[in-house]
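We were asked to recover a plausible sequence for a given structure. The inputs and outputs are reproduced exactly as logged, with field labels preserved.

PROBLEM: sequence recovery
POSITIONS: 180
GIVEN STRUCTURE:
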């Protein structure tokens, strides 16, 4: 039985008997020691964005530069990112019109971007799921990727992400993305 099911049972039991519960009393000593591990704590609590938006942006001149261009090649905005940030989240954070209808779950192609060729070759190969979604993307090129799957690294400094002229949203065409 998983620890989640055990804890859920304990919580339900405490609620029925109307008494306070101290969860660590019910954990083994080894489980409570594991919570002291910072990487485990980080994994349990999700990313910085999921933790109430407490994202620390790099100081000017110290981050990884990413240039966003429209389909005609006009510069929309240049931003600085942290290592590990994905293009879709960065676009939403900086009000770039990149949809992301599935919110990064690789279930659509609305965050499709065209990357600069010299940076495209530095990325790992797209997964089968990403390739399946890219097959549905409007204006697919040899350097197309889903923005939700491209995570920034120092090697990608000065990369350009060009937005296609249109997207195909199978869910709701014409709906604009909003900040969550």
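RECOVERED SEQUENCE:
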């Amino acid at each position: 039985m998983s620890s989640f099911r055990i804890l859920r049972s304990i919580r339900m039991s405490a609620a029925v008997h109307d008494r306070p519960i101290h969860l660590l009393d019910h954990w083994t000593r080894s489980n409570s020691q594991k919570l002291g591990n910072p990487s485990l704590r980080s994994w349990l609590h999700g990313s910085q964005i999921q933790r109430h938006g407490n994202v620390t942006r790099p100081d000017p001149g110290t981050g990884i530069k990413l240039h966003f261009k429209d389909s005609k090649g006009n510069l929309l905005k240049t931003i600085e990112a942290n290592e590990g940030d994905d293009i879709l989240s960065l676009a939403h954070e900086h009000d770039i019109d990149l949809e992301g209808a599935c919110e990064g779950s690789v279930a659509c192609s609305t965050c499709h971007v065209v990357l600069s060729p010299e940076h495209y070759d530095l990325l790992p190969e797209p997964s089968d799921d990403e390739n399946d979604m890219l097959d549905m993307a409007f204006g697919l090129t040899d350097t197309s990727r889903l923005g939700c799957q491209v995570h920034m690294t120092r090697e990608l400094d000065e990369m350009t992400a060009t937005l296609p002229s249109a997207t195909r949203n199978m869910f709701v065409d014409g709906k604009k993305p909003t900040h969550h």
